[in-house]
């Protein structure tokens, strides 16, 4: 009888000990995990804070996940000349553009015309061959207007409003000239049109602020398609395409 009692007490004791080990084991393990996890997350938090602090002056969390190799991010300027690109073209009114932006360009024109019915396309896609003749024609005009200019001086003057062959982004099919007047005159509604441009994926390519970056003077008529997300970010942060591309991978 006594022996049986001792046995039972012993068994219960062992059982209680076993259960308590189980019970204690689990919580302490998970507590450790929580501690480990919180250590990890606070570490990664502090890392990301440092990262964003470093570049916060140039980009923020809303930077689009675009790449410099995206088709609508192509860069053509005097430092980045390109041979004939031969994009697939679509005729819209009096101009041709890269087929991929035809709908956006038409919608942009319609919205611009709602601001001023005189808004119209002046130019779209221009081949390198056509740009060559256009550029030479401008140089001739400048030399005729001011006989004291030699060819290089005339070219320097022309380059403030037109680019040499292979260096104009009109050859991409992603640039349009849009104004309520002739392209080389100042438009009265240009500012309003530039404000709505990002809604259709366009940016005013040559702003007055951007001249040191682009090397091109203010052009209130020249718009470049970069896609809605990029256009909104670039406009909000006052970035030229050259500056924006430096922020992307
Ligand atoms: Zn243009």
In words, what does this structure look like?
By secondary structure, this protein is an alpha+beta fold. The protein is built from eight helices and six strands, in the order αββαβααβαβαβαα. Strand 1 (89-92) and strand 2 form a beta hairpin. Helix 3 packs across helix 4 (151-158). Bound molecules: zinc ion (ZN). The site of zinc ion has 5 residues, from strand 4.
Topology as H/E string? HEEHEHHEHEHEHH
Low-pLDDT residue spans: 5-56
How is the biggest beta sheet arranged?
Answer: 4 strands, antiparallel
Strand order of the largest sheet: 3-4-6-5
Number of strands: 6
**Compounds present?**
zinc ion
Helices, by number, come to: 8
Query: What number is the mean pLDDT?
Result: 82
Beta-strand content bin: 5-15%
Gap between N and C termini, in Å?
A: 83 Å
Helix content: 40-55%
CATH topology of the largest domain: Muramoyl-pentapeptide Carboxypeptidase, domain 2
Radius of gyration over C-alpha positions, nearest whole angstrom? 32 Å
Q: In total, how many domains does the architecture comprise?
A: 2
Class based on secondary structure composition and strand pairing: alpha+beta
CATH class of the largest domain reads Alpha Beta
Instruction: Report the principal-axis shape.
Output: globular
CATH architecture title of the largest domain: 2-Layer Sandwich
Biased composition (Low complexity): 35-49
GO biological process, one term: proteolysis
Domain D-alanyl-D-alanine carboxypeptidase-like core: 95-227
Keywords: Carboxypeptidase, Hydrolase, Protease
